[in-house]
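Obj.: predict assembly geometry.
Materials: sequence records (below).
Method: joint structure prediction, all chains together.
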Amino acid sequence: MLRLVLVSSLFALASVTLPASAQESPYIVTYDHYLEEPGSLEVEYFSTYGTQRAGNDWVAYWGEFEYGATAWWTTEVYLDGQSTFNDGTLFTGFRWENRFRVLQREHFINPVLYVEYEQINGADKILKEIEGHDVEADNGDPNAIARQEHDHELEFKLILSKNFKGWNFAQNTIAVKNLTGGNPWEFGYAIGASRPLALKASSKRCSFCAENFVAGVEMYGGLGDRYSFGLNDTSQYLAPVVAWNLPSDWTLRLSPGFGLNDNSHRFLLRWGVSREFSGFGAALGRLFGGHS
Amino acid sequence: MIVFKSIWTSSNAPGLIPLSVTMKIRRPLLRRIFCLLPCSAFVLSFAVAFAQTNSATPSKNNSVYAELAKAPQKAIARPNPLATDSDAIPAGAKLFAQHCAECHGDMADGGKKGPSLLAPEVQLATPGTLFWLLSNGVVRRGMPVWSKLPEPQRWQLVSFIKSLPPASQSAPNAENSAHP
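Observations (raw structure tokens):
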């Protein structure tokens, strides 16, 4: 049902807005310093298949509606869900994310501040970020039990990113506070590096040109909490990533992820599809009687 | 609705809970889902309204091209390494159509959001100046940072912009535009 809603949204938007050619990074967990273009809406659907020891494998998915409010502010709403094999399918919560560009121009390192509010339940498995002592065993409970835990979390990230000779290097530092209960601050990280397969654009429109492919790798994991900072009892992942920016304005991403220690899921397979719609703000303005 | 269908139908689901219990859980969850939709609409509407207000705010500087004058000397003097590349202009035209035409117009003669690139201020600027502006954007006036395009692609765009026929006078759209 959630997937149906997301796909319907994509087609509804396509009918009222212009597509914009995407030039997206391949990262699925890591953020770089580029925000959504002002007035554009990017609709994304991501899916993560995870293996589960001592439990059933699962597929978690989320829809993202990412809007460029200004050139320095991007706001996003996420809807999360998951299906656990031999168990069930459920909606697991929502997130509201905001990213703010701190500096007006490009610098040696470019910082972006990230603030997110999450209202999710314990069955949420999208693993959009790993923090604190998140481990594989947390996702082993049956949905009927896991869903009874309700979390309200505030999440902050400092995103640092740099481009150098065609490469992008990005590092995210994560701090999370669960507002329910007396949980301590938890920490995590994500780092990534990526590069287009070709730096020059070809003169003709093409789907399989090397410049349409961006490949890289990302690594992410928990860093414990305020009382036990470090790598003990944390999960860590290494994931090659690749994005294919199609001239038809769609972007496809694929990322097989591998757990690096016994606390991690052995294997995560992530994929995503997105489309950017320019002129969404203007279309919405016209809908409410504006003249943009 | 998504949540409970599978629980009701999966008779062998581990941790299966009785229908009466699921009904109790269902209402608050549905309420949350239905609350979320107007909340999301509100957030997006606010962001849209903010964006439009922000981009419509007139600048204290009368010229939308003033940002070009802020390029540092080192950037101004930088030559276009693709100046002799015959593919640079058509490739730049393709990139322009993909990334720039929405704001600056299909013919680069300006749009509601971006000024004309045929204006003398742009056409007389050095390739290095244009490259610097593309790389840094004019964030406070709504022009994104385009350093996400690799350097050669930004130079291809510069080649295309410099190949455009200059307008005899500044385009009328320039003063209404939010960013250069």
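Conclusions so far: The two ends of chain B are 49 Å apart (CA to CA).
To do: check interface contacts against the pulldown list.
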